[in-house]
Amino acid sequence: MYDGWFARHTHSLCGKRVAVCGATGGIGEELCRHLARLGAQLWLCCRSEAKTRALIAALRADYPDLMATFVPLDLEDAASVENAAEILAQTPPHVLIHNAGAYAIPRRTTAQGVDNVFQINCLSPYVLTERLLPSMAAVDGRVVCVGSIAHNYSKIDPADTDFATRTAASKVYGNAKRHLMLALYERFEDVKGVTLSVVHPGITFTNITAHYPKWLFCIIKHPMKVIFMPPRRAALSVLRGVFEPTAYGQWIGPRLFDVWGLPRKRNLHTFTCDEARLAYDAVNRLKY
After folding, report:
1. Contact predicate 204/230, CB 8 Å
2. Domain tally for the chain?
3. From its phi and psi, is residue 249 left (phi > 0), alpha (psi between -120 and 50) or beta?
4. Which of 19, 30, 125, 195 could form a cystine bridge with 235, CB 3.0-4.6 A?
5. What would the pLDDT profile of 38-58 be if each residue is shown by its tens digit?
6. Are 32 and 42 within 8 A, CB to CB?
7. How far is CA 179 from the centre of its chain?
C-alpha cells in the first residue's frame, strides 16, 4: 500500500540499530513493523517484558531474520532510565526514537519532585537523550522526538513548570510535550555528531486516546477509526524522521491540518525563541 512512499522517502536500514521507546502501543508497534521491513536491528525500550516479547515474536513471524532486543524502561523511574542508558550506550543506537508517552493517568509527584506526566513525557526522554549523546555521536546518530499538536494547548509557565496545579489532561500532556520539543530544539543548537528530528503523528486511534469513560469510548472509537488515520499510516511521520532531520522550529507531520495525509516538513509558528529558552532552562534545572 505504501510502496511508492517507501521508495521515495526511505532506504535500507540493514546494519542500523534503532531504539524505540514505547514500542508496544499502536503507533510504536506499527513503527516497528515499518523498521523491520527496512531491515533495522531493534532495541525495544518498554515497561512490559511480556508485551515486548510478544511483539518481537509477532514481528519475527513476518521477518524471520529480525534482530530485536528488549530493554527495560520505565520513564517514571529515574533508576530505570539510567539503567536503560547504560545498556544502550554499550552498543549505541544509530537512531533513538522517543515514542513513549502517557496522557490521562493517575497523577502523582515522582521521587524527583515533579509531576509524573511531565517526567514521563518530557524529563526522562530528555535525560535519556543527554546520557546517549556522547556514544551516539560516534555513529552519526539521530534523535527522533515524537511531539504532539497538543503542545498548542499550553504556554510555558515558569511559576508552574510541570503543570502540577492543573487538572485538564490535554493541557498537562501538551505542556510536557511543549517543554520537550522546545528544550530539544535549544539543546541541539550546540550538538555535534547527532541530529534531531521533531515529528508528530497527528491524531490516531491508540491507547493514548482510550482514556475516556468506557461508555463514551464505546461510542467514539468507531468514528475515530473512520475519521482519523490508522496507526500504521500515522507512524509514517515518525518513520520519515528517521531519515530526515529537522532544523530549529521545524517538524514533520500529516500535511492536511496536521491530522491527515502523508507527512511533510514545515515550520512551526507556535512558540518564540524566548519561550524555547525558558523551556530549556526549566528542563535542565529539573533533570536528574
Report:
1. yes
2. 1
3. left
4. 30
5. 999 999 999 999 999 999 999
6. yes
7. 13
Residues 6 or more apart whose Cβ sits within 8 Å of residue 85: 127, 128, 131, 132
The pLDDT-based confidence of 2 (bands split at 50, 70, 90) is confident
CB under 8 Å to 49, separation ≥6 — which residues? 70, 72
Give the pairing of strands 17-21 and 41-46: parallel
187 and 280 Cβ atoms separated by less than 8 Å: yes
Q: Which residues constitute the domain of residue 164?
A: 3-286
Of 23, 156, 149, 17, which Cα lies nearest the Cα of 95?
A: 17
Q: Is 231 exposed, middle or buried (0-12, 13-18, 19+ CB in 10 A)?
A: buried
The burial class, CB within 10 Å (0-12 / 13-18 / 19+), for 71 is buried
User: How far lies 237's CA from each of 157, 170, 234, in Å?
Assistant: 29, 21, 6
Cα–Cα distance between 191 and 173 in angstroms, integer? 27
**101 and 238 Cβ atoms separated by less than 8 Å:** no
Q: 3-state DSSP call for residue 103? A: coil
The CATH number for 282's domain is: 3.40.50.720
Which residues, listed in sequence order, are joined to residue 45 by a DSSP beta bridge?
Answer: 21, 71
Lowest-pLDDT range, 36-50, 110-124, 212-226?
212-226
CA distances from residue 169 to 25, 99, 200, 249, 286 in whole angstroms, order as listed = 19, 18, 18, 25, 21
Q: Given this model, what pLDDT does residue 207 score? A: 55
Task: Give me the pLDDT at residue 106, please.
Answer: 94
